[in-house]
Every structure is written in structure tokens, then in C-alpha cells.
Protein: Glutaminase
Organism: Microbacterium saperdae
Amino acid sequence: MTASALLTQAAHDLVGAPQEGLGEERESRWRGRRIVRVGAAWHLGVLLLTETHALATAEVLRAADPGRRGYTAESARERAVRREEALRGGFDEGEVVHVGWSIIDVDAVDAGGSSGPLALIDGVPMVRWSAAGGYMPLEAYLRERVELLRGSAG
């Protein structure tokens, strides 16, 4: 099967399963920096799947009030600011938000190339399931991830 056929089947199998928010950074003179909702997707590990696109994940955060301001690490302060930007952008408190995602060119993968974490290797659609990990067959990866997501919906 092609990568596009596998992803289309996964999207079909996920209808009714919970989705997570897709956000984009915006900045304006009046409203400041914020992360606004631009859609929703099923989160399948290194992939985000919508009804029309496959996306590569990037930053994942939860919208939240930053709370206290006395952080011992600069990185903790930065994460709190990002969570607050999502809250200011219209996400609900505690809602999962994906930012910095990129569209995967599935046609390029089907044609024998690669895009994001997907590649066609020896005629088999494969996914790099972690930055340090190797490739595994996309079909098995999707089957496992769809099953996990469907199972958590019940």
C-alpha cells in the first residue's frame, strides 16, 4: 500500500476519536503574542493526521495560566510563557496544543522520496518514529497508534 492510502485509511478509522488543537503563532500590536487555533488533528506520535493532511509534530504544550513567576530555570519560564500564549489565543485551560508542525508531502513519499518523518524505503512506506530511532513500517506504526488512540477514547 502507498503512504497516502495508509494515511487515508487511518483517518477513516479515527473518525469519532479525540483530536488535539493545531495552533499558529501570531503577534499584533494590540493583542501581543499569542497562539491561535487553526484546526485540529489526531495525534499519532510523530504524526498529526487531519482529514486532508499528514503533519509532522513539533512543539506540544498545554494551554495554562503561568502561575508563579519564580522559575529556577529559564527554560521553565519560557514554557510557561508559551502555555500562556495558547491560553490568550483562545485555547481552553489544559487543552493540548501543537505548534510548529509542518505539512508532510505524502505525494513525494509515494513517488519514492521522503518528507518529514516519512520515507519510501525499498518500496515500503516507513516512518522514523523518533529523532534517534530508526525507521519502521508505516502500516504497523499506524495500526498501533490508531489502536492506542481509539482505546483511550473509550
About this structure: Residues 100 and 122 are 30 Å apart (CA to CA). The first strand starts at residue 20 and ends at 28. Residues 3-153 form one domain.
